[in-house]
Specification:
Layout lengths: L2 H8 L3 H4 L6 E2 L6 E2 L18 E2 L15 E9 L5 E7 L5 E5 L6 H13 L8 H8 L7
Length: about 140
């Protein structure tokens, strides 16, 4: 890579208007990540473990000096039906949302999506009791 390209990439905002064509090794699972398989020109997370690194304050600005691991904590569906991953920085707690990519691990995506059902925030044995309370019944009826 020549010096001019390196200089432009070090300037803020380069990745907001240019594709990221660089491969990288995931700092969490060690997987080699290549942007060609992603189906997008803005690869920003590992397709294997879905982790990322906290480098942006705004998408593509490379202005974050945190550098912490961004762990995938949730998924959500955008208005157009597209899925996105919610990441939380393990170092500073910042949250971000990133589009899923074509080569993302579907089992990992589904396990994140199903986590609230698999690990509810209340004892599962209380579901019947809670349903009765919502229906207006008195406990023990």
């Amino acid at each position: 890579m020549n010096r001019e390209i390196r200089r432009r990439r070090s300037e803020g905002g380069y990745y907001q208007s240019h594709p990221n064509t660089e491969s990288f090794t995931c700092k969490v699972c060690g997987c080699l990540v290549t942007p060609e398989e992603a189906g997008t020109q803005h690869r920003n997370h590992c397709p294997n473990c879905l982790s990322s690194i906290h480098v942006d304050n705004e998408p593509g600005d490379r202005a974050a000096d945190c550098g912490g691991v961004m762990e995938p904590i949730s998924v959500w569906v955008r208005a157009n039906g597209e899925w996105a991953i919610v990441h939380r920085c393990k170092r500073c707690g910042a949250l971000s949302s990133n589009r899923i990519a074509a080569d993302d691990n579907p089992l990992k995506l589904m396990s994140i999506a199903l986590r609230p059902l698999a690990e509810p925030p209340f004892p599962i044995e209380r579901v019947k009791e809670l349903a009765s309370l919502l229906a207006g019944e008195q406990p023990g009826e």
